[in-house]
Specification:
277 residues, alpha/beta, 8-stranded mixed beta sheet, 27% helix
Length: 277
């Protein structure tokens, strides 16, 4: 699959120039000498006594690089739609850290959000949003499952997600032999606990290919759960128009991006999440 490097061009992995400033930063976990933060964006005039639905956001970067800041502009958009948006920092694969530890971090972030719902004005409903490798991690919470038994999100919004990693050499390398690769491949673990899902996917994606998203949706639909797969022809990973080299020099198609964003918004509305424009 070659997830290798969504690394060389942060913009298409979710980075934004002049990213907006979050309203709040909190440390949700301290592990192995590292403090991990959640960055919160609130709807205008948010009052914690009048809770809103929430959403966790996970950046991409091949499990190896990246920053929550890459999702700040998207988080601000979700907040404008009426959601409490929480951009999550997770450990990156390096040394002894693998995607297994990153998944544990994301699960801890979900647990923190639920435990502090009253404090930050969250309802009991939390969606999950993930880009590329971040899509893998948030989907894994609801398929592979959390090591502490924490439930996954109530809805998934995925953008060029890595859902079928069983045959991916890059992911295998990042896993460092700690577990069978298929054990952490979301498509292999779709089940009754997997929530309704909306996926935005480029038809020509060579990094996280369409076949994985299609298999995931087919399996989810077969057990009676909604899965909307929005496929955009003529574009690749992260809806880039640069099909020759899809791991860098990204050129996202603005029309496809705008359409994908709107499909995600409409999906939230259909499921009764805060429907603001």
């Amino acid at each position: 699959m070659g997830i290798a490097l969504c690394l060389l061009n942060a913009v298409a992995c979710g980075a934004q120039e002049q990213a907006p400033t979050p309203e709040r930063q909190v440390i949700y976990r301290e592990v192995a000498g590292q403090a991990l933060s959640i960055y919160a964006f609130f709807p205008a005039g948010h009052d914690s006594s009048k809770p809103a639905d929430g959403i966790l956001l996970l950046h991409g970067g091949g499990w190896s690089v990246g920053s929550p800041e890459w999702t700040f502009t998207t988080a601000r958009r979700f907040a404008a739609w009426g959601l409490v948006a929480l951009a999550v920092q997770y450990r990156l694969s390096d040394g002894n850290v693998t995607p297994i530890e990153a998944l544990a971090d994301v699960c801890a972030a979900l647990a923190w959000a639920r435990a502090h719902a009253g404090e930050i004005g969250l309802t009991h409903r939390i969606a999950g949003y993930g880009v590329s490798a971040g899509g893998h991690l948030i989907a894994a919470t609801a398929t592979v499952g959390c090591p502490d038994g924490e439930a996954g999100p109530d809805v998934l919004l995925l953008w060029s997600p890595a859902l079928d990693v069983a045959g991916d050499g890059w992911f295998r390398q990042k896993l460092k032999g700690r577990a069978p690769v298929a054990a952490y491949s979301p498509v292999e673990h779709v089940g009754l606990s997997t929530p309704p899902t909306s996926i935005v996917q480029g038809a020509e994606d060579t990094v996280t290919p369409l076949a994985g998203a299609r298999r995931y949706c087919e399996r989810l639909v077969s057990i009676g759960t909604v899965c909307d797969l929005h496929v955009y022809e003529g574009v690749g990973h992260l809806l880039t128009r640069n099909l020759a080299v899809q791991e860098r020099d990204f050129d996202p198609d603005p029309e496809a991006v705008a359409h994908g964003i709107e499909r995600h918004r409409q999906f939230l509305v259909r499921l009764g999440f805060s429907p603001g424009k």
